[in-house]
Design goal:
The structure is a homodimer of 186-residue chains. Chain A has 186 residues and is an all-alpha fold. Helices cover 72% and strands 0% of the residues of chain A. The longest helix of chain A has 23 residues. Chains A and B meet through α6, α7, α8 and α9 of A and α6, α7, α8 and α9 of B. The structure holds a DNA duplex (30 and 30 nucleotides).
DNA sequence: CGTTTCTTGAAACAGTCGTACCATATACTG
DNA sequence: CAGTATATGGTACGACTGTTTCAAGAAACG
């Protein structure tokens, strides 16, 4: 008996907190401004998530879930040549709508370099692409267990994303991807 | 008249502060622990640098100066094929001794995504390579003003550095660079 | 010596941080 | 209604932040 729990509240808070972190970044995150923006209180954030660290972990998990879902919705899994796929991935990841995700991605990586203990499964963010890419890049890969080609492909995309987010030079980065496609084709 | 100024003290402090930041990262930097590690006081740090922000700017400038000097010392500017050059750059940047610089580099980039106003010349960290690389990559570039090839080459290196610092998988990242060289050769 | 300038220590200020404690409000059961 | 569980507000604690203030020390000069 007693008042029934309301798990939906935690989910609502998590969703809005994820919006907030995507908008404002992880670096200077603090409970009081976050709570104010979410029309709640630090008290409730700790009540629902236990501690700031667990809240951040939940937000990152939620952001990853969202990213994966959006990706699955927007990348046709089977159609087209490997080159078309590569261009599709680049177009999708470099689109302005993805900028908050990209920023959070780079932010987590940087923090993970100083505090690896906080991100036990961060390597998965890299190797998780191999299964997805290995299938769509068939014809470029040297075999079904080729991890080197996906590694290079994702390195190009991440490196160009790094460049684009720093310089904002869309034309030059787009052309650099064209050049990479050209190298792959020959 | 009066006691003469001692500008050497500021330089000594700057050098040691740069060591400290390279070792501990920029993210959680705070004056009191820094001063303790440097056998000085927060009072003196502010006396010499004016504010924490100016101190950080000075440290970043010093770190960039060091990196450039080390690079100039270790990369033969003229000898060898473009491929050898590329391998040399990768070997140099991915060496464990460079890890602190790489970490700081990624950290500054991530912070710059959230606070661009603090890094007015951060694009230079990208485009600064073009002159250096354009010369050494002659034979791969399409012309003397080709910025696309250096963009792609540096994207590969940065992307692979991102991978290596996250996964620690030296073998796979080395092989990915081999594969890139192979693509360039054909 | 006194004067002047640079250097340095100690302490305090005003603020933010994550978090814990205590009381109360709310919604349900019997 | 009482009883019981969850939900929530308010407040305060201790630690930390960058920075300022006040005073004194240290090294030059006349």
């Amino acid at each position: 008996m007693g008042r029934p729990p309301d798990p939906a509240r935690r989910e609502r808070t998590l969703a809005r907190a994820t919006d907030y972190v995507l908008a404002h970044g992880l670096a200077g995150l603090s409970l009081r401004p976050l709570a104010a923006a979410l029309d709640t209180s630090p008290r409730m954030l700790l009540y629902d998530f236990g501690s700031k660290q667990e809240l951040v972990a939940a937000v990152l998990a939620e952001a990853r879930r969202r990213g994966a879902r959006r990706l699955a919705e927007n990348l046709p899994p089977e159609a087209g040549s490997p080159e078309e796929h590569l261009r599709g991935i680049w177009a999708w990841m470099s689109a302005p709508e993805r900028a908050p995700f990209v920023r959070l991605f780079f932010e987590v990586h940087a923090d993970g370099l100083t505090h690896p203990e906080n991100y036990p499964d961060r390597a998965e963010a890299i190797t998780g692409w191999f299964d997805t890419l290995g299938a769509t890049l068939r014809g470029i890969t040297t075999g079904p267990d080729d991890t080197v080609t996906p590694t290079l492909v994702m390195a190009v995309i991440r490196g160009l994303l790094f460049d684009l987010t720093t310089t904002g030079d869309r034309g030059r980065t787009d052309r650099a991807l064209d050049r990479f496609c050209e190298l792959l084709r020959r």
